[in-house]
Amino acid sequence: MSFKMNHIGGFFGLGVLIILMSGTLARTQSEMPGSLSLESFKTMHFTKADAGDQAAALTYSDLFDVIAACRAYSRGLALLPNYHEPILTRGQKGIAVFKKVSPSVVLVVTGDIKNDEFSETGLGTGVIIDQGGLVLTNWHVIAGAGAGAIFLKPENGTDAAQNSAYWARLVAQDPQADLALIRFIKPPAGLIPVNLGDIAGIQIAEDIHVIGHPHGHLWSYSTGVVSQIRDNYDWKYSDGSQHLAKVLQMQTAINPGNSGGPVLDDNGNMLGLVAMAEEGQNLNYAIAIDVIRGFVSRSMAPRSRGVEARNELPKGDFYTGQTKDGMLVAKVVYPDVVSYTIHNSKGSVVELIAETSDGATLTATKPNAFGGFGQWSLRLANGETVVANSAGLAPELISPSKAK
Predict the structure, then answer these.
(1) What is the average per-residue pLDDT within 262-288?
(2) Cα separation, 90 vs 100, whole angstroms
């Protein structure tokens, strides 16, 4: 039987990157030397060049990932001040399960959040499954997103300045079963993995517990029961994607943002991963734990590591130009971003400036040995600025600014 389902949620890197939120741009265009300003590049004369002769520092994928990660971090950070520990009123079992498992539950934020508001894509839940930094979530939470931020549950209070997010990369996916594995590039110490349960132990009418981020209400708890276990259940989402897996049918409160959240027994063992709700039927479904175990095992096998290739990336048009003081500028024009990589008279990269089609400006300085930059600044179209430091190409640790 096939039904049209709603998404319940919404990603991902190399290097040490600390992204800082700031009310003002640390290095505005007006503070740059005139020869290095974005406006001066727009008026320069450039000559068409072959891609093989182009000395651009970063690829389109590199630029896309950094910009998307900065945007995702900005969106997720805006939610944290609204977080507070839920008031649990369903008894001691629920309280114990939440306290035990909630540190294993993460917030996954991609750059796909429309109009700076919560939507069915862009935000979802994930579950830490090992101390090495593997996180399980739904395929539809991260599908199509190359970069994003993972937020751990806040330890103390709601002060955003005390919270950090982490860059993670997609390592495996099963679109049919709606499952994905992502990994922290540099996992923080003290990660707490969830315990995986056993399908044989699941009973119809068994009490279950769910932790997730419904409608952006972070680390929320709900409870319910297992209604049925359904083999080879097929469903599709509003985006047209079709899926098939063994699922748990549940009676519990599930809303957008719960996708990728754990379904737990009274001992805090994971029985399934929340996936979807049936429109108008008040029925909710989770991918069954034996499907999850099989997916994780296959994903970690030496010959099955990695993920499907991204959709074909845009091909840029390449140009070269020279400033009045002899600095070489490599210009690349993509459909949604134009980048300018500046080289000194010896040919070494010194800076990169890029502008997106929606008006965001990315500036990268202090080139490092890995082909990236030590400092980044992204000014979003709404005037908000994200500043970053890196020892590699892409984000790892993402933190709000402590400076006022």
Answers:
(1) 88
(2) 16
